[in-house]
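Progress report, Aim 2. The chain analyzed during this reporting quarter is listed below.
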Amino acid sequence: MRAVIRTLGLYLLLAGSVACRDKNAKPDEHAAPPAPSSTATIEPAASSGPAPSERHPRVYVSNEDSNDISIVDSATDEVTGTIFVGKRPRGIRLAPDGRTLFVALSGSPKDPPGAHDGGRPPADRAADGIALVDVATEKLVRTIASGRDPECFDFTPDGKFLYVSNEEAAQASVVELATGSIVKTIPLDEEPEGVTMKPGGDIVYVTSEAANKVFAIDTKNISIVATIETGPRPRAIVFTPDGSRGFITEEQGSSLTVVDAKKHRVLSHIKLEGTAHKPMGAASSADGKTIYVTTGRGSSVLYVDVASHRVVKTIDHVGVRPWGIGVSPDGRKLYTANGPSNDVSVIDVASGEIKKRIGVGSLPWGVAVSRSSD
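Predicted structure tokens for the chain:
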């Protein structure tokens, strides 16, 4: 009898202990971690090549006549590689994530659109497209559709869409990058060229060289919301980092137009001294206080003060017809693509001294500079 009582007591003691433990335990304290859902984000595998911390920013230069890209190490300002991409590479930009370099290719002959066709070689429409180069491996990955005769382009900030100027077709193409297909075309006036996305990505500006206009396109509805009249032959647009101002270069006007980029209205015109200056490319300082402008046959780079809309400094004898321009991530150097002399000038921003001329491919056109972490 005593044995039975002892056994029953032990049973009650154990049962009470388990009940107490279950009551005080946290619900998932001992549960196995849940299996990943089908919608979980999968990080891409690490790419080959040096880790970002081991790479200095690269300067990428499109060479229109040699059909390739020159790669310059910004630490040494030496060419470290050349990548064949296809016919007439011009517009060049890095994707928002910095992993892919995009380059506009064209199968159109070099004569300006609208010129007499006699004696011109036929266009190679199969050569039109946007080349994608993997930054880590420095290899051409593929070429995607872009519309006829692409010249310049820019990305939506999320990297999902590309807006491309189709010079001969007088239109802009909207390319979905996930599929590599054109989802819409937007009719514009003659010879669209410069394409720049406004910070924030709600608006993209496209110049029309022959019509002396800039079109403001709403990226949500993919429609033109404003047309801005400019001086003769607008080439490029650059926005201040806060998106409040836009500066438009005007080659044949020897001038710049400054616009309120929120209302798409002209604020002022900056007339340059003399007619030698032919404004072409433009870039902004990181702090948004200065716009740097190449002047083509004027062979110079201008520093434009954003607050006063005035040229505050001129660097002469930069190179032969400087066009594309880029700024180093630290803001200390400018790089200009000097077409006829087949080189790139390296300019010290503070002093204006031309530190070096780097030989690249044939007829350098555009410049893209990677960030320190790319």
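The CA atoms of residues 33 and 57 lie 41 Å apart. The first helix runs from residue 2 to 24. These observations will guide the mutagenesis work planned for the next reporting period.
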